[in-house]
């Protein structure tokens, strides 16, 4: 794979990088703290799932509430027997009393808790500390996407399905680079050894390049899509694909690039590929496959919108043909599973509504089962990149032609106006 020297990820034939920067959560172009999403995110969810982030938001809102003013307790006679017959002391002023805000009281409470935990095993404490870690791409994130007509597979069974028979046929076309003479058992064993890793960065450096092979398709990765118009009103993180393909910015007519900037230009970096429509999300063995799928759904929606913007550029009405022109893949090193998905866009179901973005599974492969299954998966992956590039180039060329035709017509009208004045 051809790699640009400035920011491109090094692949199989390149020297390994020492470290790969971790993904950062970003909202509206700024770094998102590890705490939570904005309150508007939670206010607009049609259903709130019980996730660590939802509990943190509940704690935040409870802490922000003013302490209730305790009612004045009733005064009773000091006669003990009569006092007891009347029910004892009035404790209503203690109901709903918030936790103490004073730091010293909190510290005292914390020390008491620590003391009680000393009797528990160290192993249990370690598991508890890990349990509080959560991904931004949880059930509530998925619900947020669904509420905005961005659907994972099977989440919207009423949507028209794209015809993917021809695409699946193209994905299975053999590739000489994966023939037994060029990718033999020893190379498959090398893949298996490199797949025994514990970090996502190592997966991207050492494992994914074996799957991608060498190609001249412009690509980038691990860059937040800060220039795209948010599909979620900026209430969630920006998409940060581990890997994506796009077109060189110079291939897109300048007027098209400017008119569709927030639809096809993912970042403000001048040399990053534009109009991305092929994406990869990878996970280390301890990473969640469900998280990778949600990330791929999010990436694919941006890619589908980019292709639709180019396809509709210069047309009187938006073009909705229910065909898939964007593809995403996920790879989970723990299971050795490669999944391929197609994404397509359909018109709003109501006037003034949002378009709908749909994710459909194409194929799935156990890359670590045998050399044959690896070859099948890598073949589909590489062919999908080629198919995505053909779609991308076709739409860019058509948009460029319409832009130039519009320029010619504008120039002609200007000449007629000048002649009439004379």
From TrEMBL:
Pfam families: DUF7924. Residues 1-10 have a biased composition (Basic residues). It comes from the Eukaryota. Residues 1-37, 60-127 are annotated as: Disordered. Residues 11-20, 87-106 have a biased composition (Basic and acidic residues). Residues 266-396 form the DUF7924 domain. InterPro entries: DUF7924. This is DUF7924 domain-containing protein. It comes from Podospora australis.
């Amino acid at each position: 794979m051809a790699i640009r020297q400035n920011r491109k990820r090094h692949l199989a034939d390149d020297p390994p990088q020492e470290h790969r920067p971790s993904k950062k959560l970003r909202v509206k172009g700024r770094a998102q703290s590890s705490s939570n999403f904005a309150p508007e995110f939670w206010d607009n969810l049609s259903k709130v799932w019980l996730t660590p982030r939802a509990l943190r938001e509940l704690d935040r809102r409870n802490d922000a509430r003013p302490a209730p003013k305790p009612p004045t307790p009733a005064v009773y006679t000091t006669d003990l027997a009569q006092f007891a017959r009347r029910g004892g002391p009035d404790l209503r002023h203690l109901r709903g009393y918030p936790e103490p805000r004073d730091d010293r009281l909190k510290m005292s409470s914390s020390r008491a808790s620590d003391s009680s935990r000393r009797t528990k095993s160290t192993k249990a404490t370690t598991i508890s500390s890990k349990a509080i870690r959560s991904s931004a791409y949880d059930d509530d994130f998925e619900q947020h996407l669904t509420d905005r007509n961005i659907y994972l597979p099977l989440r919207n069974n009423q949507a028209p399905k794209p015809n993917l028979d021809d695409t699946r046929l193209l994905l299975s076309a053999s590739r000489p680079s994966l023939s037994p003479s060029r990718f033999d058992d020893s190379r498959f064993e090398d893949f298996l050894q490199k797949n025994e890793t514990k970090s996502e960065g190592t997966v991207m450096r050492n494992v994914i390049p074996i799957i991608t092979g060498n190609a001249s398709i412009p690509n980038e990765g691990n860059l937040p899509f800060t220039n795209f118009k948010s599909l979620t009103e900026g209430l969630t993180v920006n998409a940060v694909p581990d890997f994506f393909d796009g077109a060189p910015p110079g291939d897109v007519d300048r007027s098209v690039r400017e008119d569709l900037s927030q639809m096809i230009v993912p970042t403000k970096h001048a040399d990053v590929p534009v109009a991305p429509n092929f994406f990869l999300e990878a996970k280390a063995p301890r990473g969640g496959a469900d998280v990778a799928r949600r990330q791929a759904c999010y990436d694919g929606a941006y890619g589908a919108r980019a292709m639709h913007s180019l396809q509709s550029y210069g047309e009187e009405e938006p073009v909705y043909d229910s065909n898939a022109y964007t593809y995403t893949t996920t790879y989970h090193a723990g299971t050795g599973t490669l999944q391929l998905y197609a994404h397509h866009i359909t018109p709003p179901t109501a006037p003034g509504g949002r378009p709908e973005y749909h994710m459909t599974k194409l194929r799935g492969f156990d890359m670590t089962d045998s050399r044959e299954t690896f070859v099948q998966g890598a073949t589909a992956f590489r062919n999908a990149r080629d198919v995505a590039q053909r779609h991308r180039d076709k739409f860019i060329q058509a948009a460029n032609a319409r832009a130039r035709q519009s320029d010619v017509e504008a120039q002609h009208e200007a000449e007629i106006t000048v002649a009439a004045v004379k």
